[in-house]
Amino acid sequence: MTERVFVTRKIPEKGLKLLKDEVELHIWKEEFPPTKEEIIRQAKDSSGLITLLSDSIDAEVIDKLSDLKIISQYAVGYDNIDIEKATEKKIMVTNTPGVLTETTADLTWALIFAASRRIVEADRYVRNKRWEVAWSPELLLGKDIYGATLGIIGLGRIGTAVAKRAKGFSMDILYTTRSVSKKTKLVERELNATRCNLDNLLEKSDIVTIHVPLTEETYNMIGSRELSLMPKGSIIVNTSRGPIINQDALITKLSENHLFAAGLDVFQNEPLETDSKLLQLENVVLAPHIGSASIATREKMSTICAQNLIQGLHGETPENLVNPDVLDM
Ligand code: NAP
Description:
Number of helices: 12
CATH superfamily of the largest domain: NAD(P)-binding Rossmann-like Domain
Bound molecules: NADP nicotinamide-adenine-dinucleotide phosphate
CATH class of the largest domain: Alpha Beta
Order of helices and strands: EHEHEHEHEHHEHEHEHEHEHEEH
Low-confidence stretches: none
Number of domains: 2
Helix content: 25-40%
Strand order of the largest sheet: 8-7-6-9-10-11-12
Number of strands: 12
Shape: globular
Mean pLDDT: 97
CATH architecture of the largest domain: 3-Layer(aba) Sandwich
């Protein structure tokens, strides 16, 4: 019998085409995502579920979807899924690492540039017809990137891709990870990067960029104390997950101009509240969680996401299994 699969939003056609040949596909086609209750209703009797990072796949959802064999997440981060519960219920969970690394590193750099050189503010200045004097010695002065110190919190796939780009700007690179691997050692050698603890990194960096996953350990890891350690006039960029920074503390440090600017692709709550104080600040560049949003990358993500799911349903070990413990159960 063909297995039933529920996809919580329309993903690019390439992946859907692969799935259509293999499973009985049900796709949520509304503009707004399904609620938790709707996911439970729609995915009832499904063996496979394709999810987005905005879907809360918590213990309640997992408990109620008793036929589920695999959850294939259309993202590299999977903090929206209760992995422990899924493993307990023998449900495989997969993600889409790697394919979105370079695209997300590009977006990180777009935010570094925009925040340092006030690009969005400059655009608003011209559009709002405030450009009245041809050239002004002190108009929209920004911060230099070339030769600055870049602090990378989390030197994994995306952090490393960000570091590689920094080489072209002759930057000093500091980084923090919990463990040292062959890969981080290689980056140290090739890019002359220095590993240090978080406090040192914050104290010494002109620009800090965050690339750790959201976990219990990283939730609010950058709070008021940590932001105070950053030198006055420094910049912070977050393309990882919003709750890693305490957003209220960040708003305070930006309002006080302790920080020169921030570039944010991710927020405490998404979408950002329409009355958020962040919207009133000139010195923050805001993007609506578009780190991996290139045409080619989203297509690749849909293919990998579909392949993971098909492998799992065929009884194979999916290439991007995030809870391998499930195989021993
Ligand atoms: P990755 O390769 O797993 O890298 C994560 C890095 O964080 C590793 O170097 C890891 O090293 C380090 N780390 C984990 N916990 C840490 C901690 N408590 N303190 C310090 N370092 C820690 O992941 P990735 O592919 O680069 O992706 C990173 C994150 O980016 C994802 O989890 C996702 O949330 C986010 N993301 C966002 C977008 C977007 O659209 N904005 C797109 C893609 C990804 P150790 O384990 O040695 O500590």
